[in-house]
Amino acid sequence: MGRFLTGALIGGTALAVRPAAAAPLPQPTEKPILTVSGKITNFNKDKTAQFDRPMLEALGMSSFETNTPWYNGPVRFEGVPMERLMQAVGATGDKVVAYALNDYSTELPRSDFAQYNVLLALKRNGEYMPVRDKGPLFIVYPYDSNPELRHQRFYSRSAWQVARLVVQ
Amino acid sequence: MRLLRGIGGRAEDRPAVRAVKLLLVAVAGFFILAAVYTSSLIVERQDALRKVSRYNTAWLASQAVVELAKLQQRIAAYMVPGSDVDRDEVQLRLDILANRVGLLRGGEMAELVAGNRELCTVIDDFAAAVEKAQPLVDAGDPAAMRKLMDLLSPLEPKLARLAAAANVYGGDRVAEDQRHLSRLHWIFSGILLALAACGLGLFALLLWHNRLLQRTHRELLVRTEELHTQNARFDAALNNMSQALCMVDADQRLIVCNRQYMELFGLLPGQVQPRTPMQEILAAIVAAGRYPRELAEVIHEEQQALIRDQLPANFFREHSGGRALAVSHQPMPGGGWVATYEDITERRRAEARIAYMAHHDALTGLPNRLLFRERMEQELGRLDRQGGWLAVLCLDLDHFKNVNDTLGHPAGDMLLQAVAQRLRACVREPDTVARLSGDEFAILLPACDQPGAVKTLADRLLKAISAPYDIEGHRVVVTASIGAALVPGDGDNADELLKNADMALYRAKTDGRAAFRFFEAEMHARLQMRLALEMDLREAAEKGQLEVFYQPLFDLTLGRVSGFEALLRWHHPERGLVSPVQFIPLAEETGLILPIGEWVLRRACAEAMRWPEHVKVAVNLSARQFRSPNLIEAISAALAESGMPANRLELEITESVLLQDDEAVLALLHRLRGLGLRIALDDFGTGYSSLSYLRTFPFDKIKIDQSFVREMDARPDCAAIVNAVAGLAVSLGMAVTAEGVETAEQLQRLREAGCTEVQGYLVGRPRPAAETTGMLDAVIGPAGQAAGQRRAALLGSLPR
């Protein structure tokens, strides 16, 4: 929790602390944009957790500004902290494999989430990200907060057009 | 006292130390620069590494191919009726492809395509195709799908080409990055090596620096040691000097003093701490009481004056109590001063004692000649200014020598002391009585009113001195002679006055002693004459002016001439025949009597050889000759030269000879007798005739003085003396010769008295040698033959 808080503060946005206990997941009201499966305990459809954009936003948004290799200049990302998402789905695994729309996949250790305050971004500079611009979901690290993060290893973990997460 | 000397280190070390410091600064600067540069290199390396690890362009490009293929595949599936692919799926894939366009346009792909028109065209075509695809997807009809397929197909090879190019670009970039890294590595290594070298250099520099420091340290130790030694030496010098020393600063506070200073003034170490005000030390000196307050203060004041004027000075101050301090004051640059002090009390006393001794006679305590002369000069100077009278008296004891000879020197000294006492008692306060030498005294009368007073005093002195003395139980009577010189009149300087007073004294002596005489100018003239006579006498023998005369001696028993007495005559070219009374005393005084006496002896012996063998020759010996150490040699030589037998020579000595040391005289007389000659006692009865002489030495002959013979007729006492002496001589077995026989009556009485021999005008006058032979046959006739003329003065008949 403390680590999370630290990450949130680094992100620069004050957050309301929500209870960590996973509430039962509601059913998506819009077209789901994220499916979480694997070692999770909270489902809402066939052993998976389906999220539409409001559901994700309802988990509580966080944000930070950072430089990236993909954009010129600093960019403000806003989205759901990955760790909070994991808690929301009652994730028990220690690895998460992210699948993109274009079938790109990458594996993230779950420990990164709390350690680096990894964000499942929905917005870039206040705008929802379209598929045409790395949307709808983009896993980003706050690269500026730690030189360690400005490395290919973390860049490759930063998957855009994320559609699915599998907890392992 | 601590003397500090500058510690400058060795001159050649200073530039070395500076060089080392500069080098150290340079090395440090180099280190800083290297650190900055290394930091920048590390940043650059990080950057390079970041580039190496950048997003893979090849992957980025190849994904375009994959995504294009997936879109085409979805479109194809969409065109097949009944497939589960809907238009949304196609739209999604197109969106994904559209996303790729953005990716290819941005980031590193932009760098890749920037310099390559072909690739630019590819991307532009790609973008354009995606642009055109959207309306077709929106239409969603099969025709549109076909058109879409046609639109996308040409993209496949282009995107493949882009992927290949990106792959190559990626490889190039990796290679370039590696080269860059390698270059950075080399630079880094170079810097490291340089830093290592610098480190070694720094180490060497530090060693060098350290060595310089050590050397400086050692030198410092040596200097410190030297300073200690110097201080020790300085302290030793300070404390081993004989004088007390203190050094004072410009504020009149003590810098340092030595042990002698403390000891001299009786100060304690606590009282002479550095920086103590001199005023306090003065108070301590006064309190210590080694020196009277007045002395300490007068010296302090003297020094204060010197301090004000910045003058050096050596002076001493003496207290009436006798304590005396010598001070040597020396100002120092900067206003301070150094002074030495010495207690010269003892020295002053000694000096006073020496001065007293130098000016006083040890025996009598009277002023000596030096002080007497000083007083004379002093009084003469006063007289010049004030006028008035002044008298100088010279006083001499008559025959003082006899006292010494008979009673011994200690008695003589006691007599002198007694005389001095009496003299002092006779004079007044301002008069000075001095002992000039031996029995010679002088009196200075600085304020005599007239010559009459001098005469009165002189008479008083003569009377006082002539009173009997009791010397060790002996009653001694002595007289004095006094000569006086007066100012004005008898001289105007000390030498002249003393000389003139002495001359007057001489006159008093020659006038019969126990007398007083004023100086008279005539005395001076006589002295001059005497001097001239002495000069002439010196040359007389050489110039053949001396001649020996011979007077016959007649043997009454045998009735013939038995011998001649040799008598000296001087034919002066100007003065004519000079009386022996005049020149014999002169010859005695000057010592000329010795060569002259020898000459007479030789002449007489030679002459006697021309006479018959029974005729003797008698030669007078003066006291001076008798004392001459070569008397025996001279007599032997005269005898040997002439070949005359010794028994023909007769030496006549006077009683005055016998007054001297008995033993030596007796020994000499016996030695003379040993030569074989005869010895006669001349002028018997005139001097201190003592019968004891006759007992101590067996004279061969006694000669009765002519004065008795002359008076014999008139005075019975003289006849009695002649009779007694003659009788005595006969009874002692000695021959008796009477001198000065002039008349037959005298001859008769002498014959009756028992005289064996006579001499005188009755027998014959002294004649030149050539005439002696004529007198050999002389016979004493009647009274008429006696010469009326008085006998000339002979040797041995000097006035006494």
Summary of the model, kept short:
Chain A has 168 residues and is α+β, with helices and mostly antiparallel strands. Chain A has helices spanning 2-11, 53-58, 82-88, 110-116, 152-157; strands at residues 34-38, 49-51, 62-66, 75-81, 95-100, 105-109, 119-124, 127-128, 138-140, 162-167. In chain A, strands 2-1-10-5-6 form a 5-stranded mixed beta sheet. In chain A, strands 3, 4, 7, 8 and 9 form a 5-stranded antiparallel beta sheet that branches.
Number of helices of chain B: 28
What is the helix tally of chain A?
Answer: 5
Backbone shape of chain A: globular
Overall CATH architecture of chain A: Alpha-Beta Complex
Structural class of chain B: alpha/beta
CATH fold title of chain A = Sulfite Oxidase, Chain A, domain 2
Strand order of the main beta sheet of chain A, please?
2-1-10-5-6
Distance between the termini of chain B: 82 Å
Total strands of chain A: the figure is 10
Relevant CATH superfamily of chain A? Oxidoreductase, molybdopterin-binding domain
Low-confidence stretches of chain A: 1-21
Q: How much helicity do the residues of chain A have? A: 10-25%
Number of strands of chain B: 22
Radius of gyration of chain B: 72 Å
Helix-strand category of chain A: alpha+beta
**Strand content range of chain A:** 25-35%
CATH architecture of the largest domain in chain B: Alpha-Beta Barrel
In terms of quaternary structure, the protein is heterodimer
Distance from N terminus to C terminus of chain A (CA atoms, Å) equals 22 Å
